[in-house]
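Lab notebook page, bench 4
Experiment: in silico fold of construct C2
Operator: M.H.
Input chain length: 87 residues
Purpose: comparison with the prior construct
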Amino acid sequence: MEALLKDPSKLKKVLLYHVAGQKLMAKDVVKMSNITTLEGQKLPVKVTEKEVFVGNAKIIKTDVNASNGVIHVINAVLIPSEKPSGK
């Protein structure tokens, strides 16, 4: 956490990796194989008989209305992968 606080650029990437560019209710998420985040990467969605995961985090509460969208509470912090530099 301290490392992220010392690196505003990386902190911004982590935060944007937790946000979709559209309002997605739980009924929408379970129909998806991935979600494109505002950070730019795709976050995989996995649906089992009892649980739904985004990346390696389990969704533990769904459809929490907020003034700027909807929140789905997860049980872990998602860290975006480092994109290749293109070399």
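Observations: DSSP finds three helices and five strands in the chain. The two ends are 30 Å apart (CA to CA).
Next step: discuss at group meeting.
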